[in-house]
């Protein structure tokens, strides 16, 4: 790995956020092969990670197989990020970029939309790795709902998603890249590729890692 004094090359932590059916998963796959083809080491991650023990509890909740108190499920979503934190850091430090489908912002937006206090929702996220880039796939809730319908999981309802969109708006900060997700897939992809490549190149030059504090 190249080093420049104290500053070490590392991978980029790239987060995709947006409502359900905004296109995050399709775009993650495209960005993964784009960076791969350019020779950058990259992995595609997603939260919730349903493969861990905590992730299985989350999945069972989302598929309505179990009921949990709103605070409890919120903390499980957060715990699911915490349990991946050290691996995330190791990957980034080894030069691997991560394209992450949902992160702490989903955690705060979805739980706040249920009526939980937003500051309470942010608290357990403090100390997780801060993304180098957040791309928000912006789509009117009604349009997202029209896209081949929702999958039937908890939260996949138009009225609720409208509320989630409001909380995402509150969380948006000037560093976020807002992508018009109503555009054709290829146009969205083209915009995102440019933004992502800049970020990967910047982190390779040795941008320091930082930690979350959701403002
Ligand atoms: N979700 C996702 C949360 O409520 N909190 C979180 O922290 C995260 C990461 O889970 N409707 C919600 C958003 C989605 C649902 O995500 C499942 P996906 O990307 O559809 O698998
Ligand atoms: Mg979904």
UniProtKB/TrEMBL annotation:
GO BP field: dTDP biosynthetic process; dTTP biosynthetic process; dUDP biosynthetic process
Every Thymidylate kinase-like domain range: 16-191
Pathway: Pyrimidine metabolism; dTTP biosynthesis
Cellular component GO terms, alphabetical: cytoplasm; mitochondrion; nucleus
Keyword Iron-sulfur carried by entry: no
InterPro entries the UniProt entry points to: P-loop_NTPase, Thymidylate_kin-like_dom, Thymidylate_kin_CS, Thymidylate_kinase
SUPFAM superfamilies (alphabetical): P-loop containing nucleoside triphosphate hydrolases (SSF52540)
EC number: 2.7.4.9
PROSITE patterns with a match to the protein in the record: THYMIDYLATE_KINASE
Domain of life: Eukaryota
Molecular functions (GO terms): ATP binding; dTMP kinase activity; nucleoside diphosphate kinase activity
Similarity comment: family membership: Belongs to the thymidylate kinase family.
HAMAP family registered for this protein in UniProt: Thymidylate_kinase
Entry-linked PANTHER family: THYMIDYLATE KINASE
Protein name, entry field: Thymidylate kinase
